[in-house]
Specification:
- This protein has a five-stranded mixed β-sheet, covered by helices on one side. Strands 3-2-1-9 form a four-stranded mixed β-sheet.
- The relative contact order is 0.19.
- The protein is globular, with a radius of gyration of 15 Å.
- The protein is an alpha/beta fold.
- Strand 7 and strand 8 form a beta hairpin.
């Protein structure tokens, strides 16, 4: 997954899924024209808030980091499950203000209900993300272990 910083935050209802989908699609299309797979939306102060169609998290050492709770973003199901699982397992879950340049050398993930966890392998005109070998596979398997079939109707 290659990321690119969005030129602007197009959201008018950042806490509600739906109203901003078209605008976020345009931001993502612009990122794709630059060789990225996903656009990263920043706050007015330049802090990572969300992906256009995903949640963004990163690892600071052995701590899972999420954008600070005072940054308006969708309450993603996958990131919420990941954070809960991490806390139950005794992994520190930090809520931070971080600018893209402060994430150079960090493992950065995008999460979504559709795609699960994906690792950032690059960031167009941004930081150089890193990878801790095995961490992605381990956390994917942990999330997969929680899957349950939907009941029949």
């Amino acid at each position: 997954m290659v990321l690119a910083t969005a030129a602007h935050d197009p959201r008018v209802s950042p806490l509600v899924k739906g109203p901003d989908l078209v605008a976020l699609g345009r931001v993502r299309d612009e990122a794709r024209s630059r060789g990225a797979d996903e656009a990263v939306v920043l706050s007015g102060d330049g802090h990572v808030v969300d992906g256009a169609w995903s949640s963004i998290v990163w690892w600071r050492g052995d701590a899972l980091c999420l954008p600070s709770d005072d940054l308006p973003r969708l309450p993603g199901v996958t990131v919420r499950t990941l954070a809960t699982l991490a806390a139950v397992m005794g992994v520190d879950v930090l809520h931070e203000h971080a600018r893209p340049d402060e994430l150079s050398g960090f493992e950065v993930w995008t999460t979504s209900a559709l795609h699960g966890i994906r690792i950032a392998t690059g960031w167009v005109d941004g930081p150089s993300p890193a990878e801790q070998p095995g961490r992605l596979a381990l956390w994917r398997s942990r999330l997969d272990a929680l899957r349950r079939p939907l009941p029949s109707v």
